[in-house]
Write a structure and sequence with these properties.
- The chain is α+β, with helices and mostly antiparallel strands.
- The chain has one domain (2-120): Glutaredoxin, CATH 3.40.30.
- Helices cover 37% and strands 20% of the residues.
- It contains 6 helices and 6 strands, in the order H-E-H-E-H-E-H-H-E-E-E-H.
- It has helices spanning 5-10, 23-33, 46-50, 59-67, 72-76, 112-120, and strands at 16-19, 38-41, 54-56, 82-84, 87-91, 97-102.
- The strands form 3 sheets. A two-stranded parallel sheet has the order 1-2.
- The longest helix is centred in the N-terminal third of the chain and has 11 residues, at 23-33.
- The protein is globular.
């Protein structure tokens, strides 16, 4: 998504990402990928939950994550084992969601260019 920040700015749009990760883990991500857009904290996936975009990992999936050395509770700062459902929302200047791409399969996400195209279509 970093690659489309300037294209979005040219359209008068702002890119914002929401994560349940702790500030330290988020800052590591920002530094590693040199992110120039805002990465906002959603402790416990509270806002994602309000939007219906939160799920709790089942015991089998927890084991898979742990087997890969992924410590979700440590990264997110709570023991809920919840994650946000991958979603991309394009919101207009009055706060109306104009486009939403939502899906449980985190490996299939819209191409970043689709976000630029959706913003241009506003």
């Amino acid at each position: 998504m970093q690659n489309i920040v300037s294209s979005l700015k040219e359209q008068g749009a702002t890119l914002v990402a929401l994560t349940p990760q702790t500030e330290n883990h988020s800052q590591t991500l920002v530094d590693k990928h040199k992110l120039t857009f805002d990465l906002l904290s959603d402790p416990g996936n509270a806002y994602a939950s309000e939007l219906g975009l939160r799920f709790v990992l089942d015991e089998g999936t927890k084991g898979v994550y742990e087997g890969f050395g992924l410590d979700i509770p440590s990264h997110n700062g709570d023991d809920s084992w919840s994650l946000p459902i991958p979603a991309r929302l394009v919101v207009d200047g009055s706060g109306i969601v104009k486009t939403a791409d939502i899906g449980l399969d985190y490996t299939h996400r819209p191409e970043p260019q689709k976000t630029v195209d959706d913003v241009r279509a506003l």
